[in-house]
């Protein structure tokens, strides 16, 4: 962290005092929950005299109720993200402020994380004398940077291929419906190559970046890659296609887990825009072809394009999360933050 901060301070020629952090990991769980409050009640009896419109306090009250779920001792709420409100019988209201009604209901998406993970992450940064303004679950930050409004409205799944985790956020009706973290990422591809060829992880990473293809049928059986299993042994060669077969097998496994997660999101309509793949793993060659073939939906690469001036500097998939963190303070619909 210290190195990253020093580099950033030198590049930006500023002193950094506060930060937003992203968090992910197996310990993160998400649930959808709802709560309702009665409006216009005076001392417990329904009075006709006080017809008044819904204000911010009512919205806060119903969101507080919705996040009052019993959690395990070691878990904390990371996000309380409103999906929609219901006023009496009117459904799918995005912002009920100013409306009249007798009953206000909120449906929310809760993301919980292990308290230990949160506290350790924060204390690492605070030890360097930097305050932490907020923690964001990784795919939610990436979604802010890489998804279009129409996609979130008509349905899309953001898949962020990190090195140790694959994170998922499913959007529909402009609201987050499901989010999850799968404990396997693109580092396991590097591991597979290192184990199969008995080379160092660094060499394996190079082979993955320069030669590997997510779809082995689209790689060459003629192109040979030279590598040296261990010091002092003679050089060996392996075809690009053979390496890509290991990569494809692992990617297929990750895609199967992604499909299983998406099916957990309780959405009746099909997701119009299919899948947006982002994160460092999205830079693997031919990943779109493999994903489209095995999932049967439209897939595109998600790049962070919402911030001007990032062309050719930070507009590649691996920067989605960090660009999303920059946007978070301005666009977050998170109740835990608004308080």
User: What portion of residues belong to β-strands?
Assistant: 25-35%
Q: How would you characterize the largest beta sheet?
A: 5 strands, mixed
SSE order: HEEEEHEEEHEHHEEEHHEEHEHEHH
Q: Which value, in Å, is the CA radius of gyration? A: 23 Å
Fraction in helix: 25-40%
Shape: globular
User: How far is the N terminus from the C terminus?
Assistant: 28 Å
Question: Which ranges are low-confidence, i.e. pLDDT below 50, for 5 or more consecutive residues?
Answer: none
Assembly type of the chains comes to single chain
Give an account of the 3D structure.
By secondary structure, the chain is of the alpha+beta class. The protein is 35% helix and 27% strand. The chain has 11 helices and 15 strands. The protein has helices at residues 2-12, 56-66, 115-126, 138-146, 149-154, 187-197, 201-210, 240-264, 287-295, 320-331, 335-338, and strands spanning 18-23, 29-38, 41-42, 45-46, 75-87, 90-93, 103-114, 131-137, 156-161, 166-172, 175-182, 224-227, 236-239, 275-278, 299-301. The strands form 5 sheets. Strands 11-10-9-14-15 form a 5-stranded mixed sheet, with helices on both faces. Helix 6 (187-197) runs antiparallel to helix 8 (240-264) and helix 8 (240-264) crosses helix 9 (287-295). The longest helix is centred in the last third of the chain and has 25 residues, at 240-264. It is globular, with a radius of gyration of 23 Å. It starts with a helix and ends with a helix. The mean pLDDT is 90.
């Amino acid at each position: 962290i210290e190195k990253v901060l020093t580099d950033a301070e030198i590049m930006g020629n500023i002193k950094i005092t506060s930060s937003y952090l992203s968090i992910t990991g197996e310990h993160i769980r998400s649930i959808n929950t709802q709560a309702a409050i009665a409006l216009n009640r005076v001392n417990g009896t329904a009075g006709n005299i006080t017809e008044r419109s819904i204000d911010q306090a009512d919205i806060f009250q119903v969101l507080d109720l919705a996040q009052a779920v019993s959690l395990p001792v070691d878990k904390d709420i990371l996000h309380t993200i409103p999906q929609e409100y219901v006023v009496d019988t009117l459904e799918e209201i995005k912002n009920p402020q100013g409306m009249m009604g007798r009953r206000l209901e909120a449906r929310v998406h809760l993301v919980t994380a292990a308290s230990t993970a949160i506290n350790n992450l924060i204390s690492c940064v605070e030890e360097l004398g930097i305050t932490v303004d907020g923690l964001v679950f990784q795919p939610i930050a990436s979604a802010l940077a890489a998804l279009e409004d129409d996609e979130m409205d008509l349905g899309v799944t953001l898949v962020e291929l990190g090195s140790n985790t694959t994170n998922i956020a499913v959007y529909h009706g402009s609201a987050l419906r499901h989010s999850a973290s799968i404990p396997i990422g693109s580092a396991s591809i590097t591991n597979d190559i290192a184990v199969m060829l008995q080379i160092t992880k660094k060499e394996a990473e190079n082979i993955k970046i320069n030669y590997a293809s997510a779809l082995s049928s689209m790689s060459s059986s003629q192109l040979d890659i030279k590598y040296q299993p261990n010091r002092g042994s003679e050089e060996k060669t392996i075809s690009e296609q053979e390496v890509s077969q290991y990569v494809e097998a692992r990617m297929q496994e990750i895609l199967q887990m992604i499909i299983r997660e998406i099916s957990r999101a309780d959405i009746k309509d099909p997701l119009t825009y299919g899948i947006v793949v982002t994160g460092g793993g999205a830079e693997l060659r031919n990943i779109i072809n493999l994903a489209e073939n095995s999932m049967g939906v439209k897939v595109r690469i998600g790049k962070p394009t919402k911030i001007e001036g990032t062309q050719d500097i930070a507009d590649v998939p691996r920067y989605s999360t960090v660009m999303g963190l920059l946007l978070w303070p301005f666009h977050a619909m998170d109740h835990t933050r608004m308080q």
